Structure formats: structure tokens, C-alpha cells
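Section 3.1 - Work completed
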Amino acid sequence: MLSDIDFAARYRQHLDASGRQPKPVSAWDARAAELGAKPLGGSYANAFVSRLDLSDCHTLLDVGCGPGTIGLLLCDRMEHVYGLDHSPAMLEQLVRRAAELGADNVTSIRRAWEEPWHDVPRCDIVVASRAGLVDDLDDALAKLNAHARRRVYMTQLAGGHFLDPEIDALLERPGIGLPDHIYALNLLHARGIYATLDYIETPSRLAGAESADAFVQRATRILGELSNEEASRLAAWYARDPERGRRGGASMRWAMLGWESPGS
């Protein structure tokens, strides 16, 4: 029976088996200025916001807020927005951008998933955008539910791969993939919560290269140093189908889950 499966334990086993090495806070700090320089909005953020039911919602908690990608898009529709992140540099970008917008209703909170949240305010709506790849998903869902008066929305990777699996296989790095949104759906179901499910597609992180050499350079920036053999394989893959190469292979797909807070 489905109820006999411990999805929290299965998630942790899958995460361990994937070999994922969590990025340290310093890695996110290093990217903060780059991400903070991007204009607000964009295809993913706009698609995320368009799927939110904001009725009767006046306060928002943006978990894993980064430089305010989601929260700042909503600050003019909320009485108050709280941005929570474990990266101090990301929070600095959030505060800076809020000031540039003239938004005096944005508060930053430095906090990690695994830390106590006893002093994090409870808000009408809680969002966690592309921030759900955590060590303990069951605990993360409990925190989201405990801090939402009305609704929760989160996005998680669908399919378990950030890049086209064909490219991972080409580099002989396929692994088993990361745990995806199916675990969250089942953990919510075990709580008696029937989440809605939608998908947001975004271009591959390797998209936009206009030549095989540019594609290899882009892959090196994202994946780290490549061997000569790996670079040759990627260049040959691009050359076989330059149009697909310019797209970076298959697009990324994010699963968007939404549900009413159990305490609403």
C-alpha cells in the first residue's frame, strides 16, 4: 500500500545516492551580484507569479528568496514581503533592489532550511521558488505549512536533471538524477493534502551558444573544467544538430505545486 512507503526516508536515500554536493553559502554569495543585476521578471518568474492565487492575502514569505526574484514582483500587491535566505549577499541584493523600487515593505531574514524558524513570521502566503532541493524535504514541507495562513506554492525540478540527460550521458555523468517533485506530492498526500500540479518550462542553461566552440565554453562555465575528450564530445554533439545545440538540448521543466495551508 502507498501508506506503507516512507517517502521521507526514500527521498533521503535518493538524495544520498545521487551524489549531490550541496553548494556552500559562499558559492551563492559569489553569484549574488550577477543575479541581482538581472531585471525583475522574465519568463520563469512571470509564469510563477501568474499561477498564484493571491485572494485575501496581504503578507508573503519568500523562502530561498535570492535577490528577490519572486518577492519583489509582488511587493506592490502585499502589505509586507519577507525574504528568507541563507546567503547574506543575496539578502543584500534584495534590500538594495527593494530600495531602488521605493518599496519600504520588504524585510530580509537570514535563515537556512535546517535552522529553527520559531521567530520567522507567519504569512498569508508562502512561496519557495526553485529552493526545494533540501536535505530533509519532510521537515521543509512542515516549515512551509507552519508559516502559511492560507496557501503555499513551491517549485521543484521535474525529471531529476538540470541538463538534458543526453548531455549528461555524453559526459558519462548520468548518475540516477536528483529526487524530484514526486516525493513532495506523496509527502503532502500523506498529510491529507491534495496539491495542484502545473509545469513551467525554461530554456536549458546551455542555450544560446551560436557555435560549437561557444557551446563548449558555456558548458565549461556551468559544469566546470572539461577534459579534452569531453569537450570534443560536446562539440561533435552540437555539430550534429546545431539548432538543437543552440537550444542547449531539452528545456528544463519545473513542477509547481500549490496547496491550501492545513491551518487555513
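Second construct:
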Amino acid sequence: MSVIAARTATNVNYEALANETGVSAPTAKHWLSVLVSSGIVALIQPYSNNALKRVIKAPRMYFLDTGLCAYLAKWSSPDTLEAGAVGGEFFETWVVSEIYKSYLNTGQKPPLYFYRDSNKKEIDVIIYQDGTVTPVEIKKSSAPKNAVKNFSVLNPIEQESTEENVFSGAARLKVNVGTGAVVCMCADLIPADKKNWYVPAWLI
């Protein structure tokens, strides 16, 4: 559990987990599955679409209790953690866990994914629901710059859906890219551009 806590908000690597715990990769995978089944850790799967190429396949893992995560990772105080090298990962973990649990609390399966391709372009969270893909970036900053730059990687989704609908009439295949968000430490809702918003963390 301590090894997983230290790796929260990272892509799953069973070989690395095995090496750090002194067990085999299959055993590490089994142990992680127990934490997932127990509701301690969430695995977020990568978002895939025929229009998106070179998408990595490894899931990303998050502790759902940041207090327990900080304790296991041996961070002695909030100030030390906030100023530490993994402060951004813990902030991301908290945001993802709050979004994740908001769906669980209403009896829904969390429709959460993430995006990362072989060119290292990444979107922290993608909410895919009712035919709409909503990109969410998470930044531990009050004024993040260029935070929505990777949202453009989703443009081929709408383009392919439009082409399919023209030639096949399959409207049910259409996928829209919705209004994106950058969850950060800003004081209030601020437009990032014509389509996306900076969203203060306290709103989630």
C-alpha cells in the first residue's frame, strides 16, 4: 500500500511495483486488484477512439483517500506535502477522487478516463457520458498557462464522427467534445478561451 501511495496519479507499471515490493508482477497485479475491489484505489482507464492514434494502454491509479495516502507515503504535515516534489500529484489525486466519488455517491459508475499518447500529449481526466467527451486538466496553480493546449488532440473525434454520419447516417456514433475545464487554485470561474474554463478547486 505504501508503494502504491507513493505512486498515486501515475500509470500502472506492474514490473516496477513488483521490483519495489519484492514479489512477482502477477502477484503485484493481484494485490492491486484487492485494493481496487476494496474501494481504496481507483484505476482510470485510457480513453480510446478509432480517430485517436498511438494511445497508451496502461491504466492510471489513484488513492481515493488522500489522508491515508499521505500517511502511507510518510508526509508529516500538509505544509511539507504541499511544498514537496509530489504536491502536484497529490492535488491531482484529490481532484480525481472527488470527481470519482461524486458519481459513486449517486449510484453511477464513474465515466472517467484519461488521455496520453506516444508523443506524451496528455489530458488528466476525460469524462465520457451521453456521447460527449469533456476534457479536464488539473493544475496546482492559481494561474496556469497553456493548460488547455492538449485539448486539441480530441478534434479528430468530432471530425471522424461527422464523416461517419454523412456516409452512413449513423447518428448514434456521433461524439461531441464538450466544454473543457482546468481545475486549479483560481479564486473564481474564469474563461480560459471561447470554449473552456478555469474552475476553482473548491467548486468540485
